[in-house]
Design a protein that fits this description.
The complex is a heterodimer. Chain A is an alpha/beta fold. Chain A has three domains: 213 residues, FAD/NAD(P)-binding domain, CATH 3.50.50.60; 115 residues, 3-Layer(bba) Sandwich (FAD/NAD(P)-binding domain), CATH 3.50.50.60; 111 residues, 2-Layer Sandwich (Enolase-like, domain 1), CATH 3.30.390. Helix content of chain A is 31%, strand content 25%. Chain A starts with a strand and ends in a 14-residue tail after the last helix. Chain B has one domain: 2-Layer Sandwich (Alpha-Beta Plaits). Chain B is built from two helices and four strands. The longest helix of chain B has 13 residues. Chain B is globular, with a radius of gyration of 11 Å. The chains are: A alpha/beta, B alpha+beta. At the A-B interface, loops of A face helix 2 and strand 4 of B.
């Protein structure tokens, strides 16, 4: 038996949470902390390789094709954009490779205190991690006084008859595609399904989304998700809600799905199937029970708000942690919180002021509590929903199919939640994050200068709608 | 009194003066019985009365808090 190589900190994983933790630990220790980073797959994890980065690239390319063909201002002619899908995908892969190299591979080379190990890490005991190669054989052991689990997640595949034999793609594999499918059925109406669905739709695919719940994006406010669904339908996306795929089969180049809906059974025939039914944590192989790290029924690691697990000296961060939001930015923050607490700083993760987004067009972004969540917790709440029909900038660009909803604590007018459906919702939600994090009131937002005309002005108008009828208000009234 | 030995990995020490500063800082903390700091290993052994101070509280000692550039983590063999 080989002796383990000793480190101050062992990080299992090499995605966003792992990198963020390693860099923070290096900064806090002036580069003196010895760190082992153990993992498989491309460096950088989900976000840069198969998540946020390629999906945003694909969406932006698809909007560049779609928007000229669908002008929104008088006098602009419908213009068909010629494109080469395989070259777009080639460009996407090239950009992902560049982003991975510049933001991860080359970055970690600057930290001589961090040693990378390639292989699957699993616990031998509370201080020791065994690393195994692809053949299952041990390639080494590392030990550390503190261990951070940051192993991320992978797409979950539902148990549908015939699915594996028929073939399907996921958000992990779609980036290798070179030919635009003429038609796709997407199983799952969450953020991943809608983003990929709209990108393919904008390139010209026929897109059908099948969702088991009675709405898309169930975590969002009802008005927001309904408005987004209406917009996507107006572009040609078809939805089956409260529907379940019971079986899948292949016939030549076509794939068929048997769909059980509340109206009866239907058969859908498409060229490709995309599975986007959520993600599951990479925790199965870690031997967590051996070191008493507790997980929830989904296999996600239970932590305190300091990112400590149930085992002393073992922390967790990122998509493998039990919570409601799975975001790259949140993973990175959790990595920082875990490491800061290893250094005794006693800081806590704040899920409530974490922003989230869906990068469809229009985009959806949110922070804090929904109307329902706050009312359930406090008995009452005050809300206003502002339509972009009343926003000058949206009227000019013709992008009025959006909403800004603010949830306020009626006791003191503090903003406790905000959700936005707008072309650049992901940029302007930060105002909501400041408000929720710092306890700003609607008066704070109203008395803060906003550019006219802009989409960010919509946040101010949404705040003003608590105190006056916006439809009867002239421009720039304070 | 429950005596407990806490082993620290200490970052940022470059000379004997650093050892003196860290040692003096730890000794001032309530519940700390004695302190032994090694520049060569970058470690410290602190005997504490754990009824008066918890091991993690040593990491929040003034000597490990900004603007001090020293930092520490707990290491257990």
């Amino acid at each position: 038996m080989s002796e383990p190589e000793k480190f101050d900190l062992v990080i299992i994983g090499r995605g966003a949470a792992a990198f963020s933790a390693a860099i923070k630990a290096s900064e806090l220790s002036n580069g003196e902390m010895t760190i082992a980073m153990v993992g498989t797959g491309p460096i950088g994890g989900t976000c840069v390789n198969v998540g946020c980065v390629p999906s945003k690239y694909l969406l932006e390319a698809s909007h560049s094709v779609f928007k000229p063909a669908h002008p929104r201002m008088p006098g602009l002619h419908e213009t068909e954009v010629k494109y080469d899908f395989s070259k777009i995908m080639e460009g996407l892969r090239s950009y992902v490779s560049h982003a991975r190299d510049s933001k991860y591979v080359k970055v970690i080379e600057n930290y001589s205190n961090v040693k990378l190990f390639t292989g699957l890490g699993s616990f031998l005991d509370k201080k020791t991690v065994v690393i195994t190669g692809p053949d299952g054989k041990e390639v080494g052991k590392v030990s550390g006084s503190n261990i951070l689990i940051a192993t991320g997640s992978h797409p979950s595949i539902p148990n549908i008859k015939g699915l594996s034999n028929t073939g399907f793609i996921t958000s992990d594999t779609i980036w290798e595609m070179n030919e635009l499918p003429e038609s796709v059925a997407i199983i799952g109406g969450g953020a991943i399904g809608l983003e990929i669905g709209q990108a393919l739709l904008h390139f010209g695919s026929k897109v059908i989304v099948i969702e088991a719940m009675d709405s898309i994006l169930p975590q969002t406010e009802g008005e927001i998700r309904e408005a987004l669904k209406k917009e996507l339908e107006s572009e040609g996306m078809r939805f089956y809600l409260r529907a379940r795929v019971s079986a899948v089969s292949r016939s030549g180049n076509w794939k068929s799905l048997d769909v059980i809906t509340h109206k009866g059974n239907e058969k859908i025939t498409v060229k490709e199937i995309i599975v986007a039914t959520g993600r599951q944590p990479n925790t199965e192989y870690l031997n967590l029970e051996r070191v008493d790290v507790k997980t929830d029924p989904r296999g996600l690691i239970i932590t305190s708000d300091t990112m400590k697990t149930s085992a002393s000296g073992i922390y967790a961060a990122g998509d493998c942690v039990s919570k409601n939001m799975f975001l790259e930015t949140l993973a990175a923050r959790e990595g920082v919180v875990a490491v800061s607490n290893i250094f005794g700083e006693n800081i806590k993760i704040d899920y409530n002021s974490t922003t989230w987004a869906v990068f469809t067009n229009p985009q959806v972004a949110g922070v804090g509590m929904t109307e329902r969540e706050f009312s359930k917790m406090n008995g009452s709440c005050s809300t206003r929903t502002f339509s972009l029909l009343n926003l000058t900038k949206a009227s000019i660009t013709g992008e009025t199919e959006g909403l800004i909803k603010i949830v306020v604590d009626p006791k003191d007018n503090r903003i406790v939640g905000m959700q936005i459906l707008a072309p650049n919702a992901t940029d302007i939600i930060t105002e909501g994050a400041y408000a929720v994090r710092n306890g700003y009131t609607i008066d704070d937002v109203i008395s803060t200068s906003h550019i006219f005309p802009s989409f960010s002005e919509g946040v101010k108008l949404a705040a003003q709608s608590f105190i006056r009828d916006i439809s009867k208000m002239a421009c720039c009234v304070e | 009194m429950e005596k407990e030995k806490v082993k620290l990995r200490i970052y940022g020490m470059t000379c004997d003066d650093c050892v003196s500063t860290v040692t003096a800082g730890l000794k001032k903390q309530k519940g700390v019985i004695d302190v032994k700091v090694s520049l060569k290993d970058g470690t410290g052994e602190v005997n504490i009365n754990n009824k008066e101070v918890k091991p993690e509280e040593l990491l929040r000692n003034e000597v490990f808090t900004r603007p001090s550039h020293y930092k520490a983590i707990i290491i257990n063999d």
